[in-house]
Amino acid sequence: TTAPQPDQSPTRGRCGMTATCHDDCWDGLNMGKANYRAAIEAVKDTVYRTCLLMDDERWSDWLDLCGDGFYYKITAYSPEIRRDMLYLDGDRSQIAQMCELLPKHNTDRSPLKRHAVVYTVDVDDDGKAAQTVTSFVIYQNMLDGVNSHIDAGENHLFAVGRYLDSFEIAEDTARFLTREVRLETRRLDKG
Length: 191
Hints:
- By secondary structure, the protein is an alpha+beta fold.
- The protein is built from 4 helices and 6 strands, in the order ααββαββαββ.
- It has a 6-stranded mixed sheet with strand order 2-1-6-5-4-3.
- Strand 3 (about 110-125) and strand 4 (about 130-140) form a beta hairpin.
């Protein structure tokens, strides 16, 4: 019997590793190592830039990183009902309308800050699309509240989950096609 061969698609070197790999593993692949790494960096830049824009409540700038066919949803799994729950979904125009209303949102204005780590970037064979899994934590810096003299300045954990994203890549730029915010946190406070 012969040993199983590692995946030799353009998204993986001959050794089976993604993203970081040995130089000689890329011989003969359709997409060169430099183009592959440039695609990965473009995707990571878009994910991290999105976190900064959302932290700063720059919603229209965030939407500029999304393609025309963009689709967004927020989901969580409920073990009690053994089903996925859908908190929000919409296409680009629906999300844009919602973003226009966010400044009028009833909130205590305590800012939310994201910490994200891109776990995987899988670039398609032609280098024109990619999928990612990113872990995130969102913290809320308390400004005011019921006991503002006690709570002000504290950081509270707001939400934990993963971003499941797909991208279109062109000219070393990645734009969102889809984003699923897959929450582990199911009880969300105002924010």
